[in-house]
Amino acid sequence: MDTLRVTGGRVLRPDGRVTESDVTVDRDAGTVVAVGDETVNGGETAGSGETVEETLDADDTLDADGGLVIPGLVNAHTHVAMTLLRGYADDKPLDPWLREDIWPAEAELTPDDIEAGAALGVLEMIRSGTTAFADMYFAMDRVADVVDRAGLRARLGHGVVTVGKDDADAREDVEESLRVARDLDGAADGRIRTAFMPHSLTTVGEEFLREGVAEAREAGVPVHLHANETTDEVDPIVDERGERPIAYAEEIDALGPDDFFAHGVHLDDSEIDRLADAGTAVVHCPASNMKLASGMAPVQRLREAGVTVALGTDGAASNNDLDPFDEMRDAAMLGKLAAADATAVPATAVVEMATADGADALGLPGGRIEPGAAADLAVVDLDAPHLTPVHDPISHLAYAARGSDVRHTVCDGEVLMRDREVLTLDADAVQERAAAAASDLVDRVGE
Ligand SMILES: CSC[C@H]1O[C@@H](n2cnc3c(O)ncnc32)[C@H](O)[C@@H]1O
Ligand SMILES: [Zn+2]
């Protein structure tokens, strides 16, 4: 067995305990084989009576001294190549922001641009401890190449928009989403999974939604879309159909146990119950919801109803970064404000949302450090001034730590970042290429 040992740190366990333990990883299998003396086969190595740590010299070690070993963080909704549009258009509500600024710029994007933006976003994610993400965008073969090279996990899909398109173009868009879902599923040694991704229930026509969802079910891939993000998106559905968006989603068979919807800001109690009954997850994007003034998602009520709530940054144009620590803090703060209750959405909840619940929402391995689990983890330094003293490490994860506090990132047993150096990407080249692509893009849009 080719092993990696993460030594000297404190480990966040699935039950919320923090223990001083080494974590031993089987790099070939990409799984955790031991956490302290807890192993897959009950603490011993093949019945020898000795623990894994006693019998097995590790092939490689990662120093976690003074650090907290946490499950790799999960960004359950983003548009990763939108890093190219970071700071391009700020301080507007969703609809005019998309129509006046973002969509005209996206019309000029080339596959090369998308690859450059995706590499920049993935670099930022690895540097802030993210090991898995869900991405809805265009040129997804290029995004998949980046994910493959960089070593993360992802659930990828081509985003479909049919409004404003003739029948043939709309159908082609649906077909492209289904092609991506079928062709890329299982790529990158299984680290890439896919989904059918209509943009939303208002930007994709009913017949295309019905056809696409039926084909997705046939192909065995989940559905991911933006839902109930703004009142401007909810009201037309209620006016035209006489039913709320989540009821509409159910009617077109888009409300399944493997499906996950982004935002879920404007949900009434009946919709929360429907989501809970169906087992459909919601990805909360607090920074984007605040910046676009979309509203406050009922996170506490969703969790109390039994809905799996994950966390997402959304794209870097509405956030404006991909730092999961920001998202945990924002979710805890906004959750309290929304519930008018300081005990709502506590630190333990947002850490769960960014780890185990994120992995579960995306149907990807990871999210827990325990024997047998995927070896997806990050080591967070706890010795910075803004993290001193450490009364409660979970409080620090939620409220005080930043992406730049992450020392190492590991996914599928591979070290992606060691001592803040990203090993799978050339950081300088990625940044240079993305900056040039963004500048050329803006020139083309202005012509
Ligand atoms: C069709 S690919 C995805 C599409 O979504 C756009 N987008 C980015 N952020 C949001 C958001 O918060 N709500 C809805 N749509 C968003 C992105 O620019 C792409 O066009
Ligand atoms: Zn989005």
UniProtKB/TrEMBL annotation:
One of its GO terms (molecular function) is S-adenosylhomocysteine deaminase activity. It is an enzyme of class 3 (hydrolase). Keywords: Hydrolase, Metal-binding, Zinc. Its cofactor is Zn(2+). Its EC number is 3.5.4.28, 3.5.4.31. Residues 68-415 form the Amidohydrolase-related domain. CDD domains: ATZ_TRZ_like (cd01298). Catalyzes the deamination of 5-methylthioadenosine and S-adenosyl-L-homocysteine into 5-methylthioinosine and S-inosyl-L-homocysteine, respectively. Is also able to deaminate adenosine. This is 5-methylthioadenosine/S-adenosylhomocysteine deaminase.
